[in-house]
Amino acid sequence: MLILNPLPLAFLIFLLPLLFKKKWIQYTVMIILEIAESALVFFNVIYYREFTDFMTVNTMLGYSKVSEGLSTSSISLVKPHDFFYVIDVLVIVIALLYILFKKVFKHEKRNSILSWLQSLKSVSKQGLSALISGVVVSFFLVLSLSEIDRPQLLLRTFDRNYIVKYLGLDAFTFYDGFKTVQNKNVNVNKIPKDLNTVLEYKEKNYIEPNKKYYGIAKGKNVIIIHLESFQQFLLNYKLDGREVTPFLNSLLNNKNVLSFDNFFHQVGQGKTSDAETMLETGTFGLPQGSFFSSIAQDNTIQAAPAILQQKGDYTSAVFHGNTAGFWNRNNVYKNFGYDYFFHNDYFYNTPDSKVNLGIKDKLLFGESIKYLEHLPQPFYAKFITITNHMNFELSSKDSDFPLADTKDNVVNRYFRTANYLDESVHEFFNYLQTSGLLKNSVVVIYGDHFGISNDRNKNLAPLLNKSSEEWNNYNNAMVQRVPFMIYDEGIKGGVNHTFGGEIDVLPTLLHLLGIDTKNYVQLGQDLLNPKRSQVIAFRNHSFVSPKYTSYDGDLYDTATGSELTPDETQIKEIKKDQKKVNDKLNVSDLINNSNLLRFYTPAGFKPVDPNNYNYMNEYPRLLKQEKESSSKHQSVFISNSSKSTISDFKPSEKELIENPDEMTVPPTKINQNKAKK
């Protein structure tokens, strides 16, 4: 099936020359298309070997990006068998030129290839129309079958690999070109007067920092730990008498940890990428699709890495065990202002190192230290875990934690991978404490979105002491809670019961770091200010507050869970809350869909130029930056008398125990890049 997927569109492309009447135009167009097709395949093969991603239209049109993608080092990636990607050009061009210039259309015998090419000119208009129609129908049939296997393939576009896999390289290129033109037309034609709506909302929405907490973490490192698909109910939960998350449970009682037990994820179809959008830009994901995958790389963005770099001279880095192109991160992170992106290529990929979409979390943390300890301080570092990702598959050799006993195997496996993630974070925390990093860092831990989807919640219900038959939308809303914790030695720990969501993280964090958010367009509010609004918007315009829960059209009393038939007073209150939700989401969509921040630059902020960022040869570049940094920005390695702190990490993962070099030495590809540098 996968072999046949690209064929309909490819045939359609090569039928286009037959629309012309004159033979010389037909052959000329065919030659041009053949060269273009072969070039598209060839350059994408080289580009993919370098970046594990496919070339976008913007990459092709932008000289700097093309030169980046086809650098001198990339030429070394050409393989001898790549000749076969372009041999068809040579054969067909020679054949067509032979026909065209020797003029043997009627008087000479042709071989089978020439006969086939010559016969195309005799196709009638009716026959050509039928042929094209058949190809178009075939394409939409392939698209429909692809949608069955990968729903919302073109809507979410979280990974270009899937579009190429299911529809082919031509379809991806056309689709990306369409999206590029669409986005640019929106940007050009949108009237900047809408910015006034956004700025008015910004002024109205802003609340001052809580003086008790403002600036208590100023100048400290920031470490973000992203708990993949991790829901609040996992905390303090026991399965067969065993705690699922013993370490995270211990943090709830830590005197230096402030946790929030009414914190909700607010993602849409962009899932993890939506969570990153909210946490680092203060705006929501899109109502459909992913902001990261569709328009983020073309938008002006005022994100946490850039703000911290300009306000506090922070170095920023992301650590993630998946491919660089997933959710289009390799492009979007440049607009965020991230200095470094340590992705799948920077970690060892062995037969036992991967589960789900990337390397296991214990390996991610263990192998990241060799990069982390060289970051000039203060730094902003984000770790995106992945083991606790749907379908939550982890073998018994990686974990002895029991499986749950329901009729749903996905639910059964969820607790094991969550336990593994808890152990992974524990090992990393132990390293932070032993190495001394924890003293000078604020650590933010959060769950990005649900793990068990609503259509499986009735299977989950008995494990939460709920009735599957009585499970309703109130229960669906309540299990959208995810953990949110802040560790800082200067903070007074405890559990905060305020209602909040992912959109509120950025202003909360910046205020802790002593950066007032008044001038920035951020749609959340400081979680530590008791005057904040506690109406929490879901991306589908449902909402939850301490008083009311409105979820997929059903109304409930949040405190009791009872379904509401609201009286006149309640109707007014609910309408008022709904307006808050609608206004917030509409302003976010206005900002992102219209790229309005290109018209507004906060005082003291310089817009990010993505062309200044390059995620190639990062390890040697990091070592160079470390060497050139001033005494005020020494790395952990330099501060430790140029002694590594890797030995402070105590792995439990068998692969790291048996192969300790994986923690100390970058993979061969990275070392080769270092040598080339």
Q: How many DSSP H or I helices?
A: 28
Determine the fraction of residues in helical runs and give it as a percent range.
Answer: 40-55%
Average pLDDT, rounded to a whole number, is 86
Instruction: Identify the quaternary structure here.
Output: single chain
SS-derived structural category: alpha/beta
Give an account of the 3D structure:
The structure is a single chain. By secondary structure, this protein is α/β, with parallel strands linked by helices. The chain contains 28 helices and 16 strands. The strands form four sheets. Strands 6-5-9-1-10-11-4-12 form an eight-stranded mixed β-sheet. A four-stranded antiparallel β-sheet has the order 13-14-15-16. Strands 2-3 form a two-stranded antiparallel ribbon. Strand 5 (315-320), helix 17 (329-336) and strand 6 form a beta-alpha-beta unit.
Element layout with pairings:
Elements: H1 7-15, H2 23-51, H3 57-61, H4 63-69, H5 72-75, H6 87-102, H7 112-119, H8 125-149, H9 153-156, H10 160-167, H11 169-189, H12 194-205, E1 221-227, E2 238-239, E3 242-243, H13 246-252, E4 257-264, H14 271-281, H15 291-294, H16 304-312, E5 315-320, H17 329-336, E6 340-342, E7 354-355, E8 358-359, H18 361-372, E9 379-384, H19 409-435, E10 441-447, H20 457-460, H21 473-478, E11 484-487, E12 494-501, H22 505-512, E13 536-537, E14 543-544, E15 548-551, E16 554-557, H23 568-593, H24 618-628, H25 636-639, H26 654-658, H27 661-664, H28 668-676
Parallel strand pairs: 1-9, 1-10, 4-12, 5-6, 5-9
Antiparallel strand pairs: 2-3, 4-11, 7-8, 10-11, 13-14, 14-15, 15-16
Helix pairs in contact: 1-8, 2-6, 10-11, 12-23, 18-19
